[in-house]
Amino acid sequence: MLRRSWMLAVVAIASLGWSQTAAAQHQRPYEFDGTHVAISIERFMGIDYVDFEGPGGSDVYARILLNASEPVPTTSARFGLDVFIKRFSLGIAGGVTTDEVAVLAPRVGYLFGLTPTLGLWLRAGGFYAAQPDPLPDYAGVTAEVLLAWFPYSFVAFHLGPTLDLAFADEDNPNYVAIGIPEMGMTVLF
């Protein structure tokens, strides 16, 4: 049920952005004039390498369209909201799973234009991930290097590596999670 709701939300957002296509056709997709708002679904597919503190604590996990159990809270899919001021972005991402795991990640970013339809979106920030007892809560830093493809001026598909450095709130192990790669989609307004 949750997956269907996410997909319906993405389709609705994309259809709202369709009306702005004609006005924005004269500029390159990654060239923004003024301020824009972007809504994203992030990390919904990918391969993750997770290394827990201590010996023998690493493994590789893969998921396709939200169908795998996440080994750590930061690898779960999430929604994002970013405000672009020209190419500079300020945003926040968050998500909740059916296992009562929640993550909230504020961030800053910058979108570099590579070609008329390709951009490089660099983002960095922090996060807080809460889990039900007896699992630990985590806080940490995150960084992403996303290659963004703009098939239309109002939508971008992004793919790239992610890095999460997480610190536990108790005597639980800290971890490093590397997404190689993570996929997402952004709609611009």
Mean pLDDT: 82
Low-pLDDT ranges: 16-26
The SSE string, one letter per element, is HHEEEEEEEEE
N- and C-termini, Cα separation = 27 Å
CATH architecture: Beta Barrel
Largest sheet features: 8 strands, antiparallel, barrel
Order of strands across the main sheet: 1-3-4-5-6-7-8-9
Radius of gyration, taken over Cα atoms and rounded to an integer in Å: 17 Å
Share of helix, binned: 10-25%
Overall CATH class: Mainly Beta
Number of domains: 1
In percent terms, what proportion of residues is strand?
over 45%
What does this entry look like structurally?
It is a single chain. It contains two helices and nine strands; from the N terminus they run ααβββββββββ. It is mainly beta. It has one domain: Porin, CATH 2.40.160. The chain is elongated. The two termini are 27 Å apart. The model is unreliable at 16-26 (pLDDT under 50).
What's the gist of this structure?
The protein contains two helices and nine strands.
Write the layout of secondary structure elements.
Elements (H helix, E strand, L loop, with lengths): L1 H17 L2 H4 L10 E18 L5 E6 L14 E8 L2 E9 L5 E12 L4 E13 L7 E15 L2 E14 L6 E14 L1
Antiparallel strand pairs: 1-2, 1-3, 1-9, 3-4, 4-5, 5-6, 6-7, 7-8, 8-9
Task: Give descriptors for this structure.
Porin; mainly beta; 189 residues; single chain; 11% helix
